[in-house]
Amino acid sequence: MASPLPPDDDVFDRLKSAINPAVISEREKAVQERVRAQYEKAQKRLEELIHENSTLPVTISDIRIHGIKNTREGFLKSVFADALSAEKQQGYTLKTAMEDLQRTTDKLHRFGIFHPTINMYLDQGSKPSNDRTVISADLSVSERGRLLLKTGTELGNAEGGGYLNATIRNVFGGAESLYASASTATSTADIGHCARYSYEVTFATPVAANPDTVADIGAFRSSRSNHHFASHEEVMNGVRAGLKFLGKYGEHELGYTGVWRQITNLSTNASTSIRADAGDSVKSSITHTITQDSRDNKLLPTTGYLLKNSTEIAGFGELGGDVAFIKNEAEVQRAGSFKHGISFSTGLRAGIMCPLPLGLGDNSHVKPSRINDRFFLGGATDIRGFRESGLGPRDGNDAVGGDVYVAGGASLFLPLPRLGAENPFRFQAFVNGGRLVGIQGIGNGEDVKQGLVKAMREIGIGYPSIAAGVGLVYAHPVARFELNFALPVVKRAEEKGRKGLQFGVGISFL
Predict the structure, then answer these.
(1) C-alpha pair distances (Å), 211 with each of 78, 115, 492
(2) Cα gap 41→121, rounded to integer Å
(3) How would you class 284 by CB atoms within 10 Å of its CB: exposed for 0-12, middle for 13-18, buried for 19 or more?
(4) How far is 268 from 61, CA to CA, in rounded Å?
């Protein structure tokens, strides 16, 4: 017989009393531990079963995908065609079949039209086979929203503004995208003056249901004020088309651009060189860019390297337009790390531009390069410690650009005290330098080759322009922000240095 409760111990009072939160937390933690242990045990058992049967001959009867609303069935069949091909079916084992199915899942991820979590389940296939085990795969996906709108503000070198971006995903059910953007900025040095504006619309589509091969076509209009360094404004209206694909040695991008350019709205004190290039010009060019990038973070890398080469040919042969040149630019970057979150980055860039005869003409019809095609050097994102376009040839107060340049830099990054190595804030110590020269004498009887040789020799005369400094770096997911104190160490008389604080925003720094 059960003993009676003490008169002062009421069971209902005990049920009503609050439970200690620490006890609840311990119970929840114990439940989570049991669930995790059961999951790990099931996963381990699954891995053992797959390993024990890894050489089992199998055939994939079908791949079913659930959660589709806007994606075309024909597009998905093209995506799965390789995994279901008769040639591959003959050599499938359980291991190779699962590897191929995983590659197919990764392929779906890269189209950017599905949420990251794609679940895959295997089941026994419905089609019988005499000598092979038949399996089927079920993929569970969730499509991203079709419309993406993004607005924000931008703060750059001596300018601030805003932007509006709109993207329609999966336009026709085959991972196509329609992108439109508009942005504008005003000068922080001349309040109320429009520093730039741009409008762009681009349609892109994967080729042959391959996320690594994308074709695009678009149109753009932009205007940018260059009064603060070259006494003019440049307006561009154009079209472009491109093809991006993966190759053996990296990512390739082929492109065509046709653009009507205007050098307009000249300052009253614009130099003779600026006035000579003022007016309209039409550029019709093809470009090729190849990139190898193994960096762990493109904005603030701690390991890996970047190799990049870009070539542009304009106005040659049947391309048309009224400017002709070949232009090549190469970049190398290496990043590494030490203990305690300390890392470094070194980079080298070089470019060369050579005027060509228009169409199929001879060298006697070669024209000098124009200001809107030349290289410019100097500023917070390449050669810190100099003003924007502060290096290279000048005509009075105007930077007129150059045809050959070399630039390099090295930075050491240290984590800030109390923030730790994982924080995107860093202390930076840097040194950078470069040289920019123009090809002289073209159009005055001098051969292009002779002018190019003289420019290459001039690059090697004397020390390059050099600056050093320290500062703070913040690697935001969208862009990198730098606030540096820079000091020019080597500067030519005509160049524009910047001693003191310098603020920079960008996605590519030297």
Answers:
(1) 12, 15, 49
(2) 18
(3) buried
(4) 75
Residue 105: left if φ>0, alpha if ψ -120 to 50, beta else—which one? alpha
Instruction: Report the chain's mean pLDDT, rounded to a whole number.
Output: 88
- Structure tokens belonging to residue 507: 């996605």
pLDDT the model gives residue 3: 55
- Helix residue spans in 138-250 (DSSP H): 227-230
Question: CB–CB of 305/295 below 8 Å?
Answer: yes
- Which residue ranges in the chain fall short of pLDDT 70? 1-20, 39, 42-43, 45-47, 49, 126-130, 155-159, 187-194, 360-364, 443-446
How far is 348 from 352, CA to CA, in rounded Å?
Answer: 14
Enclosing H/E stretch for 42: helix 21-52
Contact at 8 Å (CB) between 345 and 413? yes
CA distance 316 to 283: 11
Residue 30 carries which side chain, given as an amino acid letter?
Answer: A
Report the alpha-carbon angle 116-119-120, nearest 5: 135
pLDDT tens digits, one per residue of 401-453: 999 999 999 999 999 988 888 889 999 999 999 999 999 877 655 678 888 88
Query: Quick one: which of 172, 180, 184, 183 has its CA closest to 202?
Result: 180
Could you give the CA distance from residue 421 to residue 296 in angstroms, rounded to a whole number? Answer: 15
Return the structure tokens found at 432.
Answer: 């950078």
Mapped onto helix, strand or coil, the DSSP state of residue 448 is helix
Q: What is the pLDDT of residues 298-315, one digit of tens each?
A: 999 999 999 999 999 999
d(CA 384, CA 465): 11
pTM reported for the whole predicted model: 0.84
